[in-house]
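Could someone model 1,3-dihydroxyacetonephosphate with this protein?
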Amino acid sequence: MKKQLKQLPLVAGNWKMNGDIGSAEELLTDLKAGLSANAPKCEIVICPPFTLLQHVGKLLNKNKYLYLGAQDCSEYGVGAYTGDISPRMLSDLGCRYVVLGHSERRTRLQESNVIIKRKAAQAIHEGLIPIVCVGESLNERQEGRAQKAVQTQISRSLPTGVEPSELVVAYEPIWAIGTGKIPTTAQIAQIHLTIRQSLQTKCARGYESVRLLYGGSVNPQNVGEIIRIPNVDGCLVGGASLKGGTFCDICLAY
Ligand code: 13P
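Reply:
Sure, complex below.
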């Protein structure tokens, strides 16, 4: 059997609904300056809002560490879907990644596992790599149901038969997002192991090399510890990705 090559870790910055042309330019200038002095040992993905994708894509151009990602996409290829953005349109703009199933969309917009799975399949079909987010609520954590909740999301929101390089999974406990709270290393290790094992039924082969990211209050101070946790192959960063220097420090921890 052919051995799967281990992929580089991935650090993704999810800007959420933040930023404008001016702040994007400033952020990218700072990030690129930091990276020009020190070579990171990871892939870096910038996920700005749709309105900034084209501009940020141009700013990233020719930097070998930096990739462009979107924060959502349609489950459809093309057609009468007012307001939607298809994965093909994102590919056309130079996107390589797309964040899907973020808890802010699952909770606020009632995005279901079924829809997330369709979006992921469509994204893969168009050559994008979905970063599918999963994670338990505080209630689920406190009632001892975190593992089961994440297993269910993995089972229902990921397509089957995928190659390990076609998919990224991000574990983002809802209670750790934007709160400064972070699970213990043992808790992260346990959920990441659960995700890894659950991927056996999803991947055609090589489930061991699918990249699993941790997300939720990651910052330059705690990233060093997160990196060393087994089955953590990168991180998905929110607030700390909005300053070029801070995000650069996180990337250079790799
Ligand atoms: P914070 O890093 O701000 O906690 O956000 C995490 C997140 O939701 C990234 O997608």
